[in-house]
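Input sequence (238 aa), recorded before submission:
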Amino acid sequence: DGASIIDIGGESTRPYSQPISESEELQRVIPVIEKLHAAIDVPISIDTSKSAVARAALNAGVEIINDVTGLKGDSDMVAVAREFGAAVCIMHMQGNPQTMQDNPRYDDVVQEVATYLMERTEFLVSAGIDRDKICLDPGIGFGKTHQNNLTLIADCHLFHGLGRPILIGHSRKGFIGKLMGSVEIADRDAGTLALSIFLAQQRTQILRVHNVAQTQKAFALLQAVHGALQPPNPVDTL
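Predicted structure, token format:
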């Protein structure tokens, strides 16, 4: 469908989800990764906070570690990323999946998230992770109120000042359903697409979505419109 990266995760991190064992996570993700790696020529990322799962996934062909704890949840994760020279995605989360939506609080959500991402980037670079292999995720829906989510998206352009690619994972999340008055997750695709177009216009480099085909079609039209809006070549105005 045109995805630039395929993200594979075996453990839910939605609010109030329960963790699973390392062995269960490995059984869920490694066979999928092995088959995908053999069949497609697209980078694969592993969505995990367990270093043993990341190591097995990297051995199976994964290139990116997407860790919702910012490589903090497992003390061995940084060493694994460094050993394999893997790209990493650092995400901000207030609390953990079991507690993050109990009572998220910020004085300035954009500034506090940006500070965390900046400090975490510098720590990882000092630990031997290549700066050019780091991307940053403000963590939409991870310890954020609905208004926090909207503010982070509205001001997402400010994160470009951190100097690394920005990843936004907004697809089908609860705040979209609340705004649209829909409880069915699949019904959130229209709202997801609206935000995807906004984020693209804000030059967000990576969008993590479920409906890739729909998003690609919308972006093709968006690019056509932007092309039509380009000023005419001076020669054409003679």
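Checked by second reader. The CA atoms of residues 28 and 64 lie 18 Å apart.
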